[in-house]
Amino acid sequence: MNVRPYSATDAEGLWELKRGFELGIGEGTGDEGKGPKYEAKLTDDYRERWLAWVDDCVAENDDCVTVAVDDDGSVVGYAFVLPASLAFVWDAAVLNEVFVAPDYRGTGVADELMAAALDAARDMDLPLDRMVLDVDRENDRAQAFYDRYGFEHWGEMVARDL
């Protein structure tokens, strides 16, 4: 396994994992409409815009997106820490996403990605020395993972349709 900074050649693999992340958001959490809402947004336009945003973030900080690549060259996991220019949203480093392909869960890949994400955040000039993330309270696997790294509940996000 090779854990390294993202490059443009990883775009297709990263996108496939992003789709898995988005579709997984609706699995087993929330009401019946949650999954279809996330699936409906995954259009070609969304893909192009999201990958362009990733490129912009990486242009600002080449360590903000880390990928795990298997021996066959497939991207099997990623961690995405928002660049420091966006730290003022929460006055902290923001762990935007961590995702590992199902076949690689429980292998230590997520731990390597988290270590890279924490290193990237430590290198940032932040208003406060902390990392925040949004995790569904019903996602027990993610909760256990973040608990192992010392994350604690800090406030709660609420949302409404526009």
UniProtKB/TrEMBL annotation:
Gene Ontology MF term list: acyltransferase activity, transferring groups other than amino-acyl groups
Record keywords, A-Z: Transferase
Occurrences of domain N-acetyltransferase (ranges): 1-162
Gene3D superfamilies: 3.40.630.30
InterPro entries in UniProt: Acyl_CoA_acyltransferase, GNAT_dom, MshD_Acetyltransferase
Annotated Pfam families: Acetyltransf_1
Membrane-crossing segments per the record: none
Keyword Ion transport assigned: no
Presence of keyword Transferase: yes
Protein name according to UniProt: Acetyltransferase (GNAT) family protein
Source species: Halogranum rubrum
